[in-house]
Amino acid sequence: MTKRDLTYITATEMAGRQREISVAEFFLKNRHLLGFDSRAKALLTTVKEAVDNALDACEEAGILPDIRVHVIEAAQNVYRVMVEDNGPGILENQIARIFGKLLYGSRFHKLAQSRGQQGMGISAAGMYAQLTTGKSLHVISRVKGERMASELYVSVDTTRNKPQIHGKKKIKWDRPHGTWIEAEMEGRYQKGTHSADMYLKQTAIANPHASFHFEGPHGEGITYQRSSKQLPPPPVEIKPHPRGVELGRLIQMLNSTRSRHLLQFLQNEFSRVGPKTAGKIIETAGRGLTERSLPKRIAHAQANALYRAIIKVPVSAPRTDCVVPIGEQRLLDGMKKEINADFYIVKTRPPAVYRGNPFQIEVGIAWGHAGGANLAVDKTGHINKVVQHKRDAAEALILHADEPAHLLRFANRVPLLYEQGGCAITHAVLQTNWRNYGLKQPKGALPLAPMVILVHLASVWVPFTSEAKEAIAQYPEIIKELKLGLQACARHLAEHLRRKTRLQNEYEKRTHIEKYLPHVGIALQDILRLSDAQRDQAVSKLDDALHKSRKIK
Q: Which of these three, 159, 192, 224, is where a domain ends?
């Protein structure tokens, strides 16, 4: 290639090629970041986002969720996903923005536990549908008290990240309130660990107050009934904790606050900061700052000093009523409802904090085969075999003794089905020494046992590793709490296994004795009829026989 063949451009031409990138346009080209990197995962992600939104809406409105999911094969590699809930419904003027605009939602700026965080899950599903099939998202919603329901066809204008409405009208709908959505997209329906029905099964475990009905593309149908009629208490919204705010965020808050002076700013904008703590922070900061300093006129150097003072001055831990765990009894009920096992143990850790964000860890273990017999002590103290009804092992989530334990990961009651290797929960399980509790564990692997390990993280802001929300970041505070929860459950499991071993040994001894007892009785009757010399000889033979039987055992 000669020098003449090379074409270069000037700075002016470079500048002319620059243009603003819409967030929708960015994710359209990088849809794998949102969980749409394969047909199978795209279908599952669509179900997941719609169900998560439905659960949040129902709980916020104080309604026990009844959710129906229907997947239909419309053509080869094309599926229609329909999700219906009995929630409060959506106002007509909000439908287009909720389903047709990325980063639009009510929970991003709210520090309280919720499933949705970013405001782009369901709109991203609609965007994927229009990209792969050209079909708009079909939405029907009815608010309680309205005579008619609203029906809209919505798509995303990706160049401007704005909703487009392709049809809107009022229709009759036999539901008093709720929302129904339909998305037609390229996808692949599959059974197993990463299936839509497995997602619903795990969701039913973590949400025992909800009922789900699933209909698959091949006519299969399954219902997960609720085991509790009591809604979880609503989480309380809190203000940011000073320990969770970085310097840039602090400067932004100073510039946008409505507080008239610095003392008022620290008390109004942060949680757990009272007059004394605020005064101590200002005094420690120095740099000419006083309680009457105007927040919007604080220079960068002064803001930096204020930030350093916030780190130095002791501040009470944030409130924890913004986090609502599943609860030990409810989680236990959910596990028993969906997992067939011999032994269950659930532990909820006390609330903890990472970067100023409250969180709480829950761990559950279900141990035992999906069928067979188990030993139990009856009311009279006798050990007996209890025959259990056998279920399909995959359905029951219990694996074989020589296979790795089944790990179920949850964040704010939502199952995490992908990216297991990069998740803090997985790392905590792998770092736990299960050999100390009587289990086999290859190096750097899950323990080999017929066991399900369930781990749930509840937080006001879950630190996901990506926008797909499939793995939790490995903060030291979270890893520590995860390990403590796992160890607490493992200790109870070890006690159960030791007790089970003792029962097995006692049962075998009793069985051995019962096997030879009739023969001993007959022999004793014969001995009593013999002379003294014959009796001594028979007893000696009987003693030799018993010694031999012990050696065989």
A: 224
